[in-house]
Amino acid sequence: MEFSGQKSTITPEGVFIIGTYDESGVPNAMNAAWGMQSDMGEITLMLGKHKTTENFE
Ligand SMILES: Cc1cc2nc3c(=O)[nH]c(=O)nc-3n(C[C@H](O)[C@H](O)[C@H](O)COP(=O)(O)O)c2cc1C
To answer: Which residue range forms the structural domain that includes residue 32?
Structure first.
């Protein structure tokens, strides 16, 4: 298989909506398309740094 080096996308993709609360109980939600089922009862999400990730640090 040859890769051209151009950016690639796979569509259609599902989108996860991740809901969190901060330390004051303020709710927040974000979209995450880069995720998958990686085992029974387990998902893997590829996340950059966001308010959402700060909330569950
Ligand atoms: C359709 C869609 C899919 C996205 N998927 C991801 C993702 O998989 N990982 C990620 O880090 N950000 C992803 N983003 C970007 C975050 O959703 C976006 O930066 C969001 O504002 C973060 O929210 P927060 O800062 O309130 O936590 C996606 C955005 C959109 C619109």
So the answer is: 16-55
